[in-house]
Design brief:
single chain; alpha+beta; 5 helices
Length: 125
């Protein structure tokens, strides 16, 4: 459900790059699973919320594309913007947080293919 490690930058990067079988297999505790299920059930009864959320994601994708940002295809609320280089992706993510207070998740290998590092913005409901 979460964890914390300390070590050198090389060690931490090695764990992140090579331990993806461990990182991506953590299951949710029963209380969080029940909460997620309750949310899904609620949204099934309130489709207008889901539709508004999808509209916001589509608007963000369109606005990014209109200004020339390389928006990657996505059918979800995630708005992936291709950066390519994982170092630059992390740098842009850090700058957005430090300079503007906006957290945008940097995603890189092994989640995405090498050379396809991206920022994953989320349209808020």
């Amino acid at each position: 459900m979460g964890g914390y490690i300390t070590g050198s930058a090389v060690l931490i990067d090695a764990i992140r790059s090579y331990a993806h079988g461990f990182i991506f297999t953590t299951s949710l505790p029963p209380a969080l699973t029940a909460g997620a299920l309750a949310s899904v059930r609620w949204l099934k009864e309130h489709d207008e919320i889901r539709q508004a959320h999808q509209e916001r994601a589509a608007t963000l994708k369109r606005r990014f594309a209109d200004v020339g940002l390389p928006v990657m295809p996505s059918v979800s609320h995630i708005v992936p913007v291709l950066v390519g280089d994982p170092v630059h992706t992390k740098l842009v993510s850090d700058m957005l947080l430090q300079d503007f207070g906006v957290y945008v998740q940097p995603i890189n290998y092994p989640t995405l293919p090498k050379g396809a590092a991206a920022l994953h913005a989320h349209a808020l409901p």
